[in-house]
Amino acid sequence: MNKLYVVGIGPGAYEDMTVRAVKTLEDCQVIAGYTVYVDLVRKYFPEKEFLTTPMRQETVRCRMALEKACEGKTVAMVCSGDAGVYGMAGVLLELCADYPQIQVEVVPGVTAAVSGAAILGAPLMHDFAVISLSDLMTPWELIEKRLRAAAAADFAVCIYNPSSKKRADYLKRACEIMLEYREGSNLCGIVNRIGREGMSSSICTLEELCSMQTDMFTTVFIGNSVTKTVKEKLVTPRGYKFQ
Amino acid sequence: MNKLYVVGIGPGAYEDMTVRAVKTLEDCQVIAGYTVYVDLVRKYFPEKEFLTTPMRQETVRCRMALEKACEGKTVAMVCSGDAGVYGMAGVLLELCADYPQIQVEVVPGVTAAVSGAAILGAPLMHDFAVISLSDLMTPWELIEKRLRAAAAADFAVCIYNPSSKKRADYLKRACEIMLEYREGSNLCGIVNRIGREGMSSSICTLEELCSMQTDMFTTVFIGNSVTKTVKEKLVTPRGYKFQ
Q1: pTM beyond cutoff 0.95
Q2: What is the ipTM metric for this complex?
């Protein structure tokens, strides 16, 4: 049985890969993935064969990787963050039903909820929800239902894909929904380009978040009702009593 | 300004640490933490000074680490998984308000939601909620409210701390709440001792999950309404159409 590895490379820097991810990429023959993600690792593994496709060609990319694995090559498909959180692990596992000789193994990585939270402080210390605002494959009604549920039950929330050129006002719409349940002063944070060149982050209120500029490299954090700042870091307390 | 690092070491194996976590532990003078977690890394960094406290002494442990950093030592506090998800990042950031000369830096790691999902397949490929069933510091009513919200809005759910000796029936109670909103056939999975000796995992239905044996080393996954199995792996589809 040939193995195809789907590897979460974390936010982007070499140091943020797990030792297992590094070893998997060292040991494979072919590194496949979306061009932008492959370019993040290419310089560390220059001798590999690379297989890339542009954005939105996810299923084509996965089929290419599976075909390559069928040829007997050891293939690693790279994803930013974790492969199992809005990454390629799901599609590869679904498609591999058509390739009986291939076994897909997921090599976990540090997803943006976790790496972004570390930059801001500890906004996800208590129960949290992870929601993508991309409605390419999910009806907006379901996204809105989940935002309402998370807001009403006082989850901390991490938002992936807060906006894109075509969805410029989605974060604003999400904030307006949250504001039906939460105070305008509810603390939030955003991180741009986590772990990559030009990284930036800021802490703001939910009201201010409505008009923040974000793009597809932004991860958004909405604290719960007790989230606070300590020394300019965002902290959602878990409830420890201090002497 | 002295730095105190709070380091997520991932599920437990050396290979599942990030390169940054390894470097941080290599470069520090003192490794602090709960005895069980320190024992996971001790053999890889035998020449360090170790500072451990038993379970339930979280704030004592954090104060000890902060005092040690005040003496001018470089200290790394280790947590299993990620330090910012039910770990020590929050307490340290809160307590460091009392230590103006100390800056706390969070080194992110692979949390159990992500590492456990990778073992099972890809159950968290779509929007998901992370909920701890520990009511030591959170009223059960709030836990129940969050379970209901996540169940009703069709989130995939990852449950931390599903049970302990004192809370033997909590997972059963959580499943019964989920069953008010979900089919008994809703697919679920559990992973015990992720990445450590004696790891085991299984896939079951929500109905079956009610009577599963779990302990404090178990992570529980409840799929959403479209979660399925492919070649014995649990997959929550994101919605890609396949040719």
Answers
A1: yes
A2: 0.97
